[in-house]
Amino acid sequence: MMKKLMKVLALMMAAMMLLGSAAMAETDLEYVKAKGKLVVGITDFAPMDFKDESGAWVGFDADVAKAFAASLGVEVEFIEIEWDNKILELDSKAIDCVWNGMTLTDEVKSAMETSNAYCNNAQVVVLAADKAADFADVPSLSGLTFAVEAGSAGEAVIDALGYNKVSVTSQAAALMEVAGGTADAAVIDALMAAAMVGEGTNYANLTYTLALNSEEYGVGFRKGSDLAAALNDYFKAAYADGTLIACAEAYGVQAALIAQ
Amino acid sequence: MLNATNLKKSFDGLGVLRDISLQVNEGEVVAIIGKSGSGKSTLLRCLNNLEKVDGGTIEIDGQALVKDGVYGAPKEQRTLCLKMGYVFQNFNLFPHMNVLRNLTEAQVCVLKRDKAKAESYARELLKKVGLADRETAYPYQLSGGQQQRVAIARALAMDPEILCFDEPTSALDPLLTQEVLGVIRSLSKEKRTMIVVTHEMNFAREVADRVVFMEEGVIVAEGKPDEVFDSEKVKAFVGLGD
Amino acid sequence: MELIIKQLPIVINSLNVGFLQTLRLFFVTLLGAAPLGLVIAFGSMSRFKPLSAVTRVIVWIVRGSPLMIQLLIIYYFPGLVLHNPIWGGGESGRFWAASVAFIVNYACYFSEIYRGGIQSVPVGQIEAGKVLGMTKGQIFWRIKLMQVVKAIVPPMSNEIITLVKDTSLARIIALQEIIWAGQAFMKGSQGISGAIWPMFFTGVYYLVFNGVLTLLLGRVEKKLNYYR
After folding, report:
1. I need a surface site. Which of A144, B38, C178, C205 has the fewest CB within 10 A?
2. How many CB pairs under 8 A join B and C?
3. Do A195 and C174 touch (CB under 8 A)?
4. pLDDT, tens digit, for every residue of C5-55?
């Protein structure tokens, strides 16, 4: 009884492996072209990816992704993902790339096939506006407790400095910690801080000060994917003919754009 | 009418019925007495197909329910057992049905009687057991004695040829016992065929045409009530029982 | 406060969309798990030993491991290990993967409740049906069922209310239910960023919906109180 069951199970596994390997024989570029669709994993992250009034995805990243898909002759589909699961999403083929202002950390580079960097970013310190003057340089921060997103570039910076930290689930949660007084400061992306902190936002009493590092954004594909090279080629062509710059200007990120 | 021969039954290797034979004739009231564990309830349950015998033959009206330990098809068993009625020690009324529905449910779904006819018959029987005014009550609203009388009426509604009682009063206190015994007594006057497993010695002596005394899975005395109750073994048992 | 009032229509609209997804998952799970649970209950009570053993092991695995892990496995496993992403990346694929995970998980919980309910019907009830000449089917439908229903309504009510809240776990595979919708405003969405209140406001939706369910289930329970 048990033996028979095992045999049947083994056979089923073998059949599924066979099915799987058949799907693996083609390259990623061929896979996407055969599918006729590039599935782009994103989060709601202005100005890179966000919804306009009609509910369609726009932003610097979204618009370039659309253009890249068009150059391949396939459709584009944007899927909101849980950021923590981005590698799972890629490897399970739920999505074909992560294109969402993703910092090129060592971790990202080892888990994904990444494109060339296309945008500059920095990790900045966010704290209460009335205390900002007391913390003008890096050494003055040593006594503070920092809220950082677990696994983020911000956390890596604080770890490297050896300062106190609380790890939370997102950059937004890190801001909430500062606003709620449970952490003295937070370390988040400069682009995000610019959009979310200061006059006229929900965090009017907070401000961002020091840049603790500089870093770059890239697009992530499945490990070994030939789509990364295809995107690099597209970046070069689009930078050369000015479309990339025009697009960056439309969303106000032209200063951060990296020459290709 | 009922003919059981050489019945054998054991639970986990323990002989509960050891070669029992019993005959019940039409219009006869048979009382089965004996200690707890003597096998008397098991015998009654086997006759009603609530337990399966390991060996022996049970014939009802000349038709075999089981022949030499071999049972017929489930459907045949069901049809044949409809000739038997059974009243439980714990009544086992259906708690989610009112009294009337308890009496009509099987009439309609088993005997395929039409609902109006089943209901009028049920009312007639309720009158007979003295509960004509309780047809809309639910079992939990009745006393134990009333519940047992409903259970008797429910068994009667199926028009059984033989009515079996499994210690019908042992879950009742003495006062309620009398009202149930009264109903059984009046049924015996109608010359109904009945098998009563009971602890009520005086009652057995009064209503039974024949008394069967069981001990450790065998019948040790059988006969007219006066004869059986005078035998030494039974005397000792009755003395113990009181 | 002024800011909240300005944000309110956008937030409510977005939460409604999320809550609709929550409701869809809730009802699909209920509709799928209720009958599947009965099948599993019969399997675990089967007198055919291998069937009941296998069923009980499955129930043990499903009840013994976190639903969150089950969601991740059901959604990502086909693509990761079998290289065949059967669900696809889109919203509807995520919804159906979540539905399968929830249906299987809740069916196992329901099956144990059913099993307890079925076994709580006294043997005497079945015997009473038998001596009245009823078939097995008649005994189940006419005698057992109502008694089982009465026995399982209180524990089922509990599970159903837990299910409403458990649907939020589906966000782990990026199903955009109401808490996802609420949290989006913390990170920034539709021009609102750093707004914390929408996430807490989702609690109101849960409270109201569970309130309605509690009333409904209470009414069912009361209706069954006509007998004891």
Report:
1. A144
2. 59
3. no
4. 888 888 999 999 999 999 999 999 999 999 999 999 999 999 999 999 999
Asked if A129 and A73 sit in the same domain, the reply is no
CB A183 within 8 A of CB A177: yes
Q: What pLDDT, on the 0 to 100 scale, is given for residue A22?
A: 47
Q: What is the pLDDT of residues B186-235, one digit of tens each?
A: 999 999 999 999 988 888 988 899 999 999 999 999 999 988 888 777 77
Task: Judge C/A contact: 3 or more CB pairs < 8 A.
Answer: yes
Q: C2-226: what fold? A: MetI-like fold (1.10.3720)
Evaluate whether chains B and A are touching (3 or more beta carbon pairs less than 8 Å apart).
no
Asked which of A215, A231, A246 is the last residue of a domain, the reply is A215
Of the listed ranges A34-38, A56-60, A135-139, the least confidently predicted one is A135-139
Distance CA A77, CA B232 (A): 97
Q: Which domains does chain B have, with CATH numbers?
A: 2-83+160-241 (3.40.50.300), 94-159 (no CATH)
Same domain, A66 and A19: yes
Alpha-carbon distance values, A119 to A72, A115, A196, A250, C97 (Å): 22, 11, 19, 15, 36
Contact B186, B9 (CB under 8 A): no
Does A113 lie in the same domain as A15? Answer: yes
* Out of B86, B88, B109, closest to residue C134 by CB: B109
Task: Look at the block and give the residue holding tokens 């099948």.
Answer: C39
DSSP 8-state class, residue A197: B
- Please, are residues A165 and A148 in contact by the beta-carbon 8 Å criterion? yes
Specify whether A132 is located in the same domain as A91: no
Q: CATH number of the domain that A142 lies in?
A: 3.40.190.10
Same domain membership, residue A208 and residue A133: yes
What is the predicted pLDDT for the residue at C20?
A: 96
Residue of B41, B94, B101 to mutate, testing the C interface (most C Cβ within 10 Å of its Cβ) = B94
Do residues A126 and A100 both lie within one domain? no
Residue C130 and residue B49: Cβ atoms within 8 Å? yes
Range of the domain at A17: 2-119+216-256
**Minimal-distance CA residue of chain B relative to C146:** B96
**Cα of C210 to nearest chain A Cα, Å:** 27
**Residue A211 and residue A137 share a domain:** yes
CA distance A241 to chain C (A): 31
What is the tally of structural domains in chain A?
A: 2
Same domain, A100 and A75: yes
Residues A133-178 pLDDT 10s: 889 888 999 999 999 988 788 888 999 999 999 988 888 889 888 9
Distance CA A51, CA A74 (A): 21
Closest to B94 (Cα-Cα) out of B105, B110, B78: B105
Chain A hits for C3, Cβ within 8 Å: 202
Nearest of A219, A195, A222, A217 to residue A206 by alpha carbon: A195
Q: Do A20 and C82 touch (CB under 8 A)?
A: yes
